[in-house]
């Protein structure tokens, strides 16, 4: 397989705008078949509530299912996504939750505004060298003691399928080494508390999934 490839953000946005409704139908309830993801999201929710609550951002929210999971556990959540059509789909499916169009490289929050952040498979279109500024932006908006939970595809290759949910696409899905993600989080000033990976579930693309939880020092 080829190595990771840089993607044009406008092209990525266009892909998800075109497939938003079909993507939501296909993946909007995927957490039901992902016990590890649910366990770690519950861990983050308990962590936030144990610190007294606060605003949480789900970056790369897609159809909003991760934001919904966290909101159902008592968190004040806002979902952020690059694609306006995906945000419209999330709002339609999860009335009452907050969703906003935004870029994970330039988040519209004040310094220290967030108690936590999730990024579930939202860095899939980045390469390892592109991670540091994105994760530095995440660190900027986290409050001292705030945690970030990142999920990604583990590896050092890229997949370029040429098609997604019936639409022709010209973007790459990049796998990332665990060390590259952890190193970028540390470079951003966050302390890595948890790192693990798992084998794919039967419904997923056959590659390992990685998870890292990191915290901003108090």
Q: Could you explain how this protein is built, in words?
A:
The structure is a single chain. The protein is α/β, with parallel strands linked by helices. It has one domain (about 10-215): Vaccinia Virus protein VP39 (Rossmann fold), CATH 3.40.50. Helices cover about 35% and strands about 25% of the residues. It is built from six helices and eleven strands. The strands form three sheets. Strands 3-2-1-4-5-11-10 form a seven-stranded mixed beta sheet, sandwiched between helices. It has a two-stranded antiparallel sheet with strand order 6-9. Helix 1 (about 10-25) runs parallel beside helix 4 and helix 5 packs across helix 6. The longest helix has 19 residues, at about 10-25. The protein is globular.
Short description:
With 218 residues, the protein is of the alpha/beta class.
Which homologous superfamily in CATH is the superfamily?
A: Vaccinia Virus protein VP39
Secondary-structure element pattern, one letter each: HHEHEHEEHEEEEEHEE
The CATH topology assignment is: Rossmann fold
Please give the CATH class: Alpha Beta
End-to-end gap: 42 Å
Structural class: alpha/beta
- The count of strands amounts to 11
Low-confidence stretches: none
Q: What is the helix fraction of residues, given as a range?
A: 25-40%
CATH architecture: 3-Layer(aba) Sandwich
Shape: globular
Radius of gyration: 16 Å
Average pLDDT, all residues? 96
How much of the sequence is in beta strands?
25-35%
Give descriptors for this structure.
globular, 6 helices, 11 strands, two-stranded antiparallel sheet, 7-stranded mixed beta sheet, 218 residues, alpha/beta, Rossmann fold
């Amino acid at each position: 397989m080829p190595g990771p490839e840089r993607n044009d953000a406008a092209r990525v946005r266009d892909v998800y705008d075109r497939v938003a409704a079909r993507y939501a139908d296909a993946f909007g309830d995927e957490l039901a078949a992902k016990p590890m993801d649910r366990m770690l999201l519950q861990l983050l929710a308990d962590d936030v509530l144990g610190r007294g609550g606060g605003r949480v951002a789900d970056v790369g929210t897609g159809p909003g299912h991760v934001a919904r999971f966290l909101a159902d556990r008592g968190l004040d959540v806002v979902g952020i996504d690059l694609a306006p059509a995906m945000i419209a789909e999330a709002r339609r499916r999860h009335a009452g939750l907050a969703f906003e169009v935004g870029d994970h490289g330039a988040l519209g929050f004040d310094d220290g505004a967030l108690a936590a952040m999730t990024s579930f498979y939202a860095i899939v279109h980045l390469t390892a060298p592109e991670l540091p500024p994105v994760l530095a932006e995440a660190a900027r908006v986290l409050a001292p003691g705030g945690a970030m939970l990142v999920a990604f595809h583990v590896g050092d290759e890229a997949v370029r399928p040429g098609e997604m949910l019936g639409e022709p696409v010209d973007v790459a899905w990049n796998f990332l080494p665990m060390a590259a993600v952890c190193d970028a989080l540390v470079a951003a000033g966050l302390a890595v508390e948890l790192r693990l990976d798992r084998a794919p579930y039967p419904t997923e693309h056959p590659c390992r999934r990685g998870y890292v939880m990191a915290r901003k020092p108090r």
